[in-house]
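Suppose you are handed a protein chain with no further information: no name, no annotation, nothing but its sequence. What can you learn? This example shows the usual starting point.
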Amino acid sequence: MEARSLLSVLKAAVLAGLLAGLVAAGFHSLLTEPVIDRAIQIEEQASKAQGKPVEEPVVSRRTQRVGLVFGFLLYGGAWGLLAGVVSHLVRSRLPALSDAKRGAVLALLGGWSVAIFPFLKYPANPPGVGEPATIGYRQGLYLGFIGLSIIGAILAFWLQRSLGSRTRSAWPLALALYVVYLVLVYLAMPSNPDPVGMPSRLVWTFRALSLAGLVLFWGVLGAAFGWLCRERERRAWQRS
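A reasonable first move is to predict its three-dimensional structure. Written in structure tokens, the prediction is:
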């Protein structure tokens, strides 16, 4: 029975992830790709103005667009699978929540911790922004920030569980300390060191679309995961 329950949760989670990936891929294909094309044009024009040769991309833009869809499907399936596993693992620690509510909440909290909050510190940039020599450093900052963000969420959850039996203010206290932790991490981590050499309007349009894509992906993942689990529970109840 336990194995069957786990399998059904994982199926719902992976399907929700694939749906979220497909929606996000469609969003970026329609809205973000034209902004990327414009950034590439500006970069090529700047190279020509400086007398530098325009380098041909290793992968064509057409291939990149196709890869965007498959990449988001893999991304969605992987995060969906992880959300399903975590949802099942914390089942005994969140007995008051159904599979539907637990899956939706965990997906949304995961999106905040690994995507949206790190984006606020290190927003995405279009092509032409960023020095090749600092790629490793910037990736280290970003991954380190994600790690600290995840640690903060885990500590907040652990604190709430530890204080839950002692005080009715466990959730407000854990949330307040979590917010303080996030502020400290945000201020302590260094900023992106690279200058932004693209038009500010294009950069902020790209960032706004990137953030909207993250919110859309994780929102669809959480909503679809919750709905699929709810449908599974409804069908199980009808059979009983």
